[in-house]
Amino acid sequence: MPEDEGELTLAPVAGETELEALVSTVFCDPQTRRGMGWTERDDPEEAMETIGGLWHRRLDEGWSIFDVQRTGETIGLAGLGPIEEGRAWWAVYLLERGQGLGKAIGRRLIDRAAEDGAREVVAVTWAKNEASRGMLSSLGFEAEGPAPYDWARESELAWLRYRRELA
Question: In sequence order, which residues have a C-beta less than 8 Å from that of residue 88 and are 6 or more positions away?
């Protein structure tokens, strides 16, 4: 059953086919790819293949992945990794920006991680993604510094790791 908060719904992704369609919808948007460090100079097909591979691995690793919907229309993707050693990883990518939706989704992911027994939540963001960094800070995350990130182009990009302890 999807979780509903007014117009905002987090619908669990059921499997590979649904995930592939969701990744295509969300990451076909150049602005969303830019938030991950991809630029117009990059091959969009390569970007989509890399991003798709990442999310399929996450599904295989036991992540809870959600189709973020507003009034029934997909506006993003969110994920919460399985809890390991009290730590849950999270990710949020939205097509609609600047409306506080990231915070609303973030609060729900934090609550879910706490309910599932996590003691902390960890996120990684591209250092130049000011909106993401601001959203994480507003939710009580603290920057820990550079993050090694298993990404096709990690040598070209600076990533930051954020962490929030849960009560």
Answer: 80, 81, 82, 113, 116, 118, 120, 121, 122
145 domain residue, yes or no: no
Residues 6+ apart with CB under 8 A from 5: 104, 108
CATH classification at residue 55: 3.40.630.30
- Give me the number of domains the chain comprises: 1
Range(s) of the domain holding residue 113:
3-123
Taking the model in full, what pTM does it have? Answer: 0.83
State pLDDT tens for residues 11-37.
999 899 999 899 888 877 766 666 666
What are 17's two structure tokens?
A: 């086919």
pLDDT tens sequence across 41-79 = 677 777 778 778 888 999 999 999 999 999 899 999 999
